[in-house]
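RECORD TYPE: inverse folding
INPUT: structure tokens
STRUCTURE:
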């Protein structure tokens, strides 16, 4: 499930994606426009800056902006940065795999196998979707996301 941190981060990025190239926005402006607590947004934007998604500038004309075009920022990367793995349960994660304490055989566990399919579908869609598509309200069907991913590879 997407946390408030992930949701607020996405809202802030959509806000920044709507700025003209070279334009910046202060945290207070982003927070007010999107009804996000400023202190929480400070932490979120710092994480996104440290992950290379944003850049910040101090002083007059300062503020936050995207570090690259919105068409080059993947939603999957943003969510992983803010919320961690996309898998609904740890045993289905590629990057944070942990065996369940009640599981006797992860290779045949029906819950893990099904949740791995869910993870793959979510990952396919979110890793294919750019911030510009997200900001425009575009949602890819899983088949379209797979095709788009294949074309990029």
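DESIGNED SEQUENCE:
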């Amino acid at each position: 499930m997407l946390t408030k941190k992930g949701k607020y981060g996405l809202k802030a990025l959509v806000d920044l994606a709507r700025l003209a190239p070279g334009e910046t926005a202060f945290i207070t402006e982003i927070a007010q426009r999107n009804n996000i607590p400023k202190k929480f947004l400070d932490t979120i934007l710092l994480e996104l800056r440290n992950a290379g998604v944003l850049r910040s500038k101090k002083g007059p004309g300062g503020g936050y902006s995207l570090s690259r075009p919105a068409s080059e920022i993947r939603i999957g990367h943003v969510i992983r940065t803010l919320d961690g793995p996309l898998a609904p349960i740890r045993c289905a994660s590629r990057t944070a795999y942990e065996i369940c304490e009640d599981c006797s055989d992860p290779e045949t566990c029906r819950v893990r196998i099904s949740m791995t399919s869910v993870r793959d579908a979510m990952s396919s869609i979110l890793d294919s979707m750019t911030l510009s598509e997200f900001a425009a309200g575009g949602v890819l069907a899983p088949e379209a996301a797979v095709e788009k991913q294949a074309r990029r590879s």
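NOTES: Residues 110-128 form the longest helix (19 residues).
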